[in-house]
Design goal:
Number of domains: 1
Radius of gyration: 16 Å
Strand order of the largest sheet: 1-4
Largest sheet: 2 strands, antiparallel
Strand content: 5-15%
Length: 196
């Protein structure tokens, strides 16, 4: 389990820093422009496109409302990401946070029966070796990071802290496979969590 979470986290770390700056340890999401997102999303480089998607997952978690809670509809997210990216292509000077707010959170489509509540997803459920599922886990981790950042009212994506949090979560989940993934994320990603 820990190897899987760590692999997903490393992939996310590399992709997110590639969106903004190769040397960035922290990214203030409020400074990301639509130009940044649209260029990466429209790139022929698969890594750049995935990096843009990972940032959109962080934005989706950040924009989640109290009513939506930890319920994520991945089908709707792909539509919201496409709408945000299209808007960004037409409005390059707008901030990505403002653009994402237009299509996510309160403005998101109603959740469908395919929506998943991350609060009931167990640590053992993310034990996978398939590449596409590992990518999916990285996206879920980024959504959780955005969610906790919103609760803390922070727009900073701290890559070092994210990596440390996921490392601790990986160990914790390996030792507690029946624990909820969201509960583990609260313990290690939230400002209130002691991380011990």
């Amino acid at each position: 389990m820990s190897r899987i979470l760590l692999r997903a986290a490393i992939a996310v770390l590399l992709l997110v820093t590639s969106l903004h700056s190769a040397s960035a340890d922290t990214i203030d999401a409020s400074t990301l422009t639509c130009r940044d997102l649209a260029e990466k999303a429209g790139s022929s480089d698969k890594t750049s496109v995935y990096g843009a998607t990972v940032v959109l997952y962080w934005m989706a978690g950040y924009q989640a409302t109290a009513e939506q809670g930890t319920v994520v509809d991945f089908d709707n997210l792909s539509k919201e990401f496409a709408a945000t990216t299209e808007f960004c292509g037409q409005n390059p000077t707008v901030g990505v946070m403002s653009a994402s707010e237009k299509f996510m959170g309160e403005n998101a489509e109603d959740q469908t029966s395919k929506a998943i509540d991350l609060a009931i997803l167990k640590c053992e459920a993310v034990n996978t070796t398939k590449e596409d599922e590992t990518d999916g886990l990285g996206q879920i981790l980024m959504w959780l990071a955005g969610y906790h950042a919103s609760v803390a009212k922070s727009t900073v994506i701290d890559m070092d802290k994210f990596g440390e949090s996921v490392t601790k979560m990986a160990t914790y989940c390996a030792e507690n496979p029946q624990m909820g993934l969201f509960t583990a994320s609260e313990k290690f990603m939230s400002e209130e969590g002691d991380g011990e």
